[in-house]
Amino acid sequence: MTAPVRTPHAAVTFVTPPPGFAPHVRFALDDVLGADGLFALRAEDDPDIRLFVVDSTVYVPDYAPEVHTEDLDAIGAAEPDDVLVLVVATIDGGSPVVNLMAPVLVGRESGLASQVILDGDDWPLRARLGSLAS
């Protein structure tokens, strides 16, 4: 995947609602000031609905999930380099964890997104960020 993209405000449209967020499909992807690669993903029609995501190239540089062609097609991307790979972040036991089993794929040109569940068990559901340092 390519270098991280800073985006002060970008519209993201999910091809299907992200799990737990139906019926919402249109979200704003906003930078969290002072934290490169950390974003708030907010439902455009209800800004109280949000989750935090991180750019995997910044926080999990060795993360290389296999992305299927049909996932790329769904978001209008021709190849994996056309995709911004975000992972959902939360706090667990006082430290940040990320979900590497279900990344959010965003087409860099289209703005279309999809949260996909990866095949197999190679990637953890709750990975502590500090333990992922290269």
From TrEMBL:
Q: What is this protein called?
A: Flagellar assembly factor FliW
| One Pfam family matching this protein | FliW
Tell me the Gene Ontology biological-process terms attached to this UniProt entry.
Answer: bacterial-type flagellum assembly; regulation of translation
**Which SUPFAM superfamilies does the UniProt record give?**
BH3618-like (SSF141457)
Keywords for this protein: Bacterial flagellum biogenesis, Cell projection, Cilium, Cytoplasm, Flagellum, Translation regulation
Q: Which InterPro entries match?
A: Flagellar_assembly_factor_FliW, Flagellar_assmbl_FliW_dom_sf
Leader sequence range is none
Q: Which organism is it from?
A: Diaminobutyricimonas aerilata
Gene3D superfamilies reported in the protein's UniProt record: BH3618-like (2.30.290.10)
